[in-house]
Amino acid sequence: MADRVAWLAGWVLLALVMVPVALMVTALWQQSADVLSVGFLLEDPGRAGRSGGIAALLISTGWILALCLLVAVPVGLGCALYLSESLPADSRRAQWLGGVLDMLAAVPSIVYGLFGYQFFAITLGLGFSILSGALALSLMVLPLMIRSAEQAMRAVPMGYRQARDALALSRWGWVRRILLPCAAPGIAVGIILSAGRALAETAVLLFTAGYVLRRPDSLFDSGRTLSVHIYDLAMNVPGGMPRAAATAVVLVALLVVLNLLVRRVLRQPMTEALV
Q: pTM score, two decimals?
C-alpha cells in the first residue's frame, strides 16, 4: 500500500511540473504558428523586427554564448578544483568562500549589467559590443558554475581518493582520468544552468552588448540577442507579440538542444572512467 501511494505521489508531482511547461509551450506555439518557418530562421529582421526573421540575432546570440562559456567554464572548473581539492569542506576558508559565491550568485542581473557597462564598455573602451556582453555574462554565471562543479567534485567517493593515494597517482592524472570524468554529470548540470541563464538574460546585455538588429562583423560590434529581441518586440513594437512568441520558441529549442549536446559530450568521459 505504501509503495502504491509513493508511486501515485510521484506521478502527481511529475504532473505538477509538466503541466505548466506544456501550457507554456502550447501558448507560445499557438501565438507563433503563423510566423515560424525556415525563412524566419534564415532571414535578417526588418522594420524594427516587424518583418523578416532572426538570422542576425542567432549569430549574435551564438557568439555571446560561446564567448561566455569559453571564459566561465575553464575559470569555473579551476576555482572548483581549488575549493574541492585544496580546502576541506568544513574549513573556515571553504565556508567563507562558499558564502561569498552564494551571495554573488544572488546579485540581481541589473547590477552585473551596470558593472559591465562601467568596466568593460567605458573603462576598457570596448563599448556596446559582443565582447562586452560576453564578459559581463561570464561574470554573472561564474558563481553558479563554480558551485555546481565544486559540489560535483566533492561528491566523488572518498574511496577513489584513498585509492589515488595508495597508487601514488599524480595530481594531474587523478584530475584528468578520475575526478573530472566522475564529476562530469554535475559539471554538465552547471554548464547547462549557466548557459540557460546566459541565454535568458536581458538586463546585462542591454547595458553591454546593445540591441542593434544588424549582423555583427566582429566581436567589437554591437548585437542583439534572442532574449533582448523578445523583450523589445513584446514591450516596444505594436503587434510584435507573434514574432516575440516565435523567437521564444526558438530560444526554448536552443536550450533543449544545448542540454542534450552537453550531456552527450560529457557522457563519454564518464563512461571511459568507469571501464
A: 0.85
Give the residues across from 51 on adjacent strands: 46
CA distance 193 to 132: 21
Mean pLDDT for back-to-back runs of 10 residues, the chain (275 residues): 77 82 84 85 84 89 93 93 85 88 90 93 92 94 92 84 73 81 86 87 90 88 91 86 90 85 66 49
Determine the Cα–Cα distance for residues 248 and 82; give it in Å rounded to an integer. Answer: 38
Distance (Å) of CA 157 to CA 142, 169, 179, 247, 261: 25, 16, 10, 43, 27
- The per-residue pLDDT for 60 is 93
User: CATH topology for 37-274?
Assistant: MetI-like fold (1.10.3720)
Burial 170-189 (b: 16+ CB within 10 A, else e): eeeebbebbbbbbbbebbbb
Cα separation, 177 vs 149, whole angstroms: 16
